[in-house]
Amino acid sequence: MYYKKLAELLFADNKMTVEEIEKKYPKRQLPEGAYVTRFAPSPTGYMHLGGFFQALIDYNIAKRSNGVFYLRIEDTDNKREVSGASSIIMNILNEYGLTPDEYQLKGGITVGDYGPYYQSERQEIYKAYAKKLVSEGKAFPCFCKKTEGLGDVKEKREKKFSVGINEDKDPCRNLTFEQIEQYLKEGKKFAIRLKTQGDGTKKIMFHDGSKGDVEIIENCSDAILLKNDLMPTYHFAHAIDDTLMGTTVVVRGEEWLPSYPLHKEIFDALGYKQPQYIHTPLIYKFNEKGNKIKISKRKHPEADMRFFDKEGYDKQAIIEYLMNLINSNFEIWRSKNKNADIMEFPFDGFNITANTPIFDFVKLNDVSKEIISHYTAEECYAQLLAWAREYSLENVDYLVKDKDYVTKVLNIDREKSKPRKDIYKWSMFFDLFDYMFSAPKKYEIEEKRRKDFEQVLREYKKYINLSSKEVWFENIKKMAEKLGYAVDNKAYKANPEMFKGNVATVCEYIRIAITGHKNSPDLFEIMTLLGEKQVIERISEFA
């Protein structure tokens, strides 16, 4: 056959051989049991929540096995590429502590010996492999106007092949050398297609890290390997790159599961062994009607990882919540190991949830509350200030000016055996504790209780003493008893009609006057920080 001659004709300018390329990418020398994983996004926009979910799995599989986690940018689709997207992706990985072991900065440094890590810089490599497949009769040029399997290609297929198992075979696979030569002389562009050996009558079996054993129809499509601009498709490029870069585990969304037969045939054609695949379920949420819907790039702001930064969510909270979605055992482990490093969790990347992960803000908020409650006040201040400098510049000045005071506010109820759990994102601080910086503008007091409310406050002006918590509370009890409020809670519960309320009622009135709210952290700590003068001024508004 004329295959070698054809390969030289199609790739006359390509002098790089597959053998030469393979010498540049030696086998990685890693400890036994170590895995090599990659996060390989396309720079078509922001970092998607689903992509980050997969990156987190990649990172854990590699790090827990003393392996390698690397970043590869699959930027072969120039039409969809968004300027700066690759930098956004890298920054988010860094910010969340998922820094790759190997990566490349656009126009900058390269870390690692298996680059380039941008597919757009590996074009000659793909051409060399395409040339090899053509020379072996495993691929062929396609001159159809629409090289994505549409338009005149579909029409030709319908005319030449019976509808059914052969409909994906391309008419250009049977062109003669002379016809191809003539097309090239005419300046026609060509794509390179795989000459499939499948006919769609057989099934293949493989083991997926998430789905278990999967049975699927073999590939019977003359799929495109190089587009007519000679840039590779994902199908072709990932097989080459994953092999050369020593990838042993590929984590990707379950939407890629139907592509497995094609990928297997490409690997087989190249003579390479496939990595292990883990096809993760897509992340869903409940809509207002209670129906499960896929988190959409266009419809849901939480699809963009930057959303969580803007909202002020703690990054460790995001990590731990996603770990709950990856492996349901994580939540149980964390409840028993509250202070343990997350890397102590016995993570198994090949035993992740097979169920559809449901993203639930209520659960995320609970996780975030728990994590933030264990931070010191100093740690909280540092994170709050960092967030404000990025997203709330109007608050930076007083945070810096009143550092000691803000830290003390953050420390209220924090050092107790059961620390407070009211903050789940840093942006909440300014609304949640606005009363610590200025008098409330609104008060949670019902009009029917206002008379008793004002009576308590008028009387309390005589009893204010913040010298100690014990003295403070004893004074409140004395005043409460004088005004007809129960000091003995058992007596109150036995005969509530005999009293106006109890001591808790009195404290609630004082709390409303000071903070505007019925509920707050420790009232005595709040009043102590505000100081007696400020306390008297606020009470005097009603007394």
Percent helix range? 40-55%
Could you give the count of β-strands?
A: 13
The CATH class assignment of the domain at 3-14 and 123-280 is Alpha Beta
Oligomeric grouping of the chains: single chain
For the largest beta-sheet, the strand count, sense and barrel status come to: 3 strands, antiparallel
List segments where confidence is low: pLDDT < 50 over at least 5 consecutive residues: 147-167
The overall pLDDT average reads 91
* Count of discrete alpha- or pi-helical segments spanning 4 or more residues: 23
How would you describe the overall organization of this protein?
This protein has helices at 3-10, 18-24, 49-63, 85-95, 123-135, 152-160, 177-185, 234-244, 260-270, 306-311, 315-326, 329-336, 361-373, 377-391, 396-401, 403-411, 429-432, 450-460, 469-482, 489-494, 503-515, 523-530, 532-540, and strands spanning 36-39, 68-71, 103-104, 110-111, 139-142, 191-194, 203-208, 212-217, 224-226, 249-253, 276-280, 284-286, 292-294. Strand 10 (249-253), helix 9 and strand 11 form a beta-alpha-beta unit. The protein is mainly α. It has a three-stranded antiparallel β-sheet with strand order 5-6-9. Among the domains are: 3-14 and 123-280, Rossmann fold; 377-423, no CATH class; 447-540, Arc Repressor Mutant, subunit A (Orthogonal Bundle), CATH 1.10.10.
